[in-house]
Write a structure and sequence with these properties.
Layout (H helix, E strand, L loop, with lengths): L2 H19 L3 E5 L4 H11 L5 E5 L6 H17 L3 E5 L3 H10 L6 H26 L2 E3 L5 H7 L20 H11 L3 H5 L13 H5 L3 H12 L9 H16 L1 H4 L13
Parallel strand pairs: 1-2, 1-4, 2-3
Helix pairs in contact: 1-7, 2-7, 10-11
Amino acid sequence: MKTQKITEHIIHWLKTYANNAGVKGFVVGVSGGIDSAVTSTLCAKTGLPTICVEMPIHQHQDQVNRAQEHIQQLKKRFSKVSDVKVDLSESFETLKKVVPPSNNEDVLSLTLANTRARLRMTTLYYIAGLHSSLVVGTGNKVEDFGVGFYTKYGDGGVDISPIADLMKSEVFAIGSYLEVPTAIQIAAPTDGLFGDSRTDEEQIGASYDELEWAMKQKDNNKKVDDFSDREKEVFSIYTRLNNINQHKIQPIPVCEIPENWK
């Protein structure tokens, strides 16, 4: 992997896109994870104003600590980096009081997790609107185009996606090259949507290294019967998630009306 070349390419792409769009800079939601750390650092390296936004909702303290360490490091390294903290816990609790309840705890838990992500998206666009900036996505290739591990119109609601063509392992490699805090580089990936320390691997049932392997196998037209034991289990997990999340991965369907009917 040509880490330096890829890094410089993304930085140039970000700066060119922003200049062509006529905006002033970037807004990035910073969670304390590797994806948002790499994304915000790439934005900062463009030299354009970059606003790092913390949006805790009953957040686990380890995630808060990592996000704050990263933001402080960025502010020391880059003069045009600033930060905003918007605690959405009260807003989240207020919304929970006025929406219909559910007796299905599993469905309710997942729906509320996605609601957290959508509150954050709204906040990012509010801040971006105030500062004439772009909301920058932090999703990687496995999440965005492999298993659809993100919230539609939550962390999936963005203007641009600079790392969405990179596997998670490649994001980690760039993170090391960019010298993001060690605590972030070694932390187990988590979406932080449940207010606890559960990891992505615990939710998905497979590690990102395993999912990358499965993604490559599917791209090579392999079938589940080509594997056995753990490989078969991982490939099945990947295939199931890829299938059920096509509504996220594919563009929004448009019902096209025959021209002679108009």
